[in-house]
């Protein structure tokens, strides 16, 4: 799909449905196996911690399981994901963070101010 031009709505809807289905399936697997990318995610968290101090107001688009934003210990954290299963999993793993079901491709505006997006 060419991202520089607007896709027809039926094509975009099919693409969106495939993305949501894929990530819903990944969420179901999160409780059954440890990601092969665990070292990568650990290192990513270490890097973000160098730049984002605890107690910040953080917005994460594509928050998935919520583990990254949760590890950053925000005073106010909002995670956005388009997978209902991921949002549910993230909320159960990190109840101190607010998770919202939305697609970053069509996200219009969020209320609130954030130190880091």
Shape: globular
Percent of residues in beta strands: 5-15%
Low-confidence stretches: 1-8
**What's the architecture, going by CATH?**
3-Layer(aba) Sandwich
Secondary structure tally: strands: 3
Give me the Rg, rounded: 15 Å
Major sheet description: 3 strands, parallel
CATH class: Alpha Beta
Separation of the first and last Cα atoms: 26 Å
Could you say how many structural domains there are in total?
1
**Average of the residue pLDDT scores:** 83
Could you name the CATH topology? Rossmann fold
- Treating each run of at least 4 consecutive H or I residues as one helix, how many helices? 4
* Order of SSEs: HHEHEHE
Kindly state the percentage of residues in helix.
Answer: 40-55%
Record keyword descriptors for this entry.
117 residues; alpha/beta; three-stranded parallel β-sheet; 4 helices; 3 strands; 44% helix
Short structural description:
Helix content is about 45%, strand content about 15%. By secondary structure, the chain is an alpha/beta fold. The radius of gyration is 15 Å and the shape is globular.
Describe it for me?
The structure is a single chain. By secondary structure, the protein is of the alpha/beta class. It has one domain: 3-Layer(aba) Sandwich (Rossmann fold). Helices cover 44% and strands 13% of the residues. It has four helices and three strands. The chain has a three-stranded parallel beta sheet, covered by helices on one side. Helix 1 runs parallel beside helix 4.
């Amino acid at each position: 799909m060419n991202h520089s031009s607007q896709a027809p709505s039926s094509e975009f809807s099919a693409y969106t449905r495939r993305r949501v289905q894929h990530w819903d399936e990944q969420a179901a697997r999160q409780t059954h196996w440890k990601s092969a990318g665990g070292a990568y995610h650990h290192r990513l968290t270490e890097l973000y911690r160098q730049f984002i101090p605890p107690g910040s107001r953080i917005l994460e688009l594509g928050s998935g399981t919520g583990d990254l934003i949760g590890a950053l210990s925000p005073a106010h954290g909002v995670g956005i994901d388009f997978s209902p299963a991921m949002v549910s999993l993230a909320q159960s793993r990190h109840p101190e963070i607010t998770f919202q079901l939305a697609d970053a491709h069509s996200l219009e505006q969020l209320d609130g101010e954030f130190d880091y997006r």
